[in-house]
């Protein structure tokens, strides 16, 4: 509840709804500096797991995109050779 009030105060100051006071901002900064940094084994493991999940999704998206591009290239190749195959017998008959 108090953190929400601080956040609302800072948001109002940012939007210039209320004038800011240097002393209040210094107190908020001091309070934030006293908070412990998150440095636990559980946090590290969770962070690494989430990071690896993001990398995996990015990798899979890249593979999917490249597969679609490759499929389109193969389709174009087959269509062009199919057209050439139909032309060749016609050309041979005229020779």
UniProtKB/TrEMBL annotation:
One of its GO terms (cellular component) is COP9 signalosome. Residues 2-75 form the EIF3F/CSN6-like C-terminal domain. It comes from the Eukaryota. Pfam families: MitMem_reg (PF13012). Coiled coil: none annotated. InterPro entries: EIF3F/CSN6-like_C (IPR024969). Belongs to the peptidase M67A family. CSN6 subfamily. This is EIF3F/CSN6-like C-terminal domain-containing protein.
């Amino acid at each position: 509840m108090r953190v929400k009030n601080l956040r609302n105060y800072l948001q109002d100051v940012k939007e210039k709804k209320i004038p800011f006071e240097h002393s209040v901002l210094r107190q908020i900064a001091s309070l934030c500096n006293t908070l412990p940094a998150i440095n636990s084994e559980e946090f590290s493991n969770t962070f690494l797991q989430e990071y690896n999940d993001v990398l995996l999704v990015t990798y899979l998206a890249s593979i999917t995109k490249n597969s679609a591009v490759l499929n389109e290239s193969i389709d174009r190749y087959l269509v062009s050779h199919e057209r050439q195959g139909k032309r060749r017998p016609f050309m041979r008959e005229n020779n």
